Amino acid sequence: MGKRWALATLAVVSVLLAGCASTVTSQVTAFGDAPGFDGPRTYALTRTPEQQNNQEHATYEQWLRTRLAGDGFSERSPSSAHYLIGMTYGITQQMMRVTEPVYDPMFAPAPWGPWGRPWGGYGYPFGAPPAYVERSYPYGLAGLQLRFTDRASGKEVYRVQANTSDAGTSLASAMPYLIDAALGQLPFPSGRTVNVEQKVGR
Question: Rounded mean pLDDT of 45-56?
């Protein structure tokens, strides 16, 4: 039981360290009046002052344009688009503390079977039990928010937030998953949080 627990813990930690999970899970929460997208699917992107002349933001905008095109949206000028879409995002660096077993090398689990090392020692539980140490591992908690505003009325018609801790420690690595998750369903049910799973490298 202890060995299986240790292996499971190490698997989780390796995912956080390497960012190599086979899937990325995002938590998506939306607010808006259903159906929310009755009008023409035309849009223009808006920018905050900090996002002007920002090459990182321009890259994320291009990823968003590509995803919106796949949903049947067409970009127009800010004076003629049906929707104005604002995009905000960020990442915070977090630390996860994990308690892990540490074995005396003489009694550590070995590939030679249940009897431990071939030169002596019979392995736990026949030898010394493992000690336990706490280690800290970094991970990133990334978030994206998209805000759809009706240009003619100025009314916000839809807001969606996506968050994930599965996509590495950089915002650039997380953004493709966040954009895809946030637009995975238009619209998502208002006021509910939905888990969206995406395969890595698809």
Answer: 96
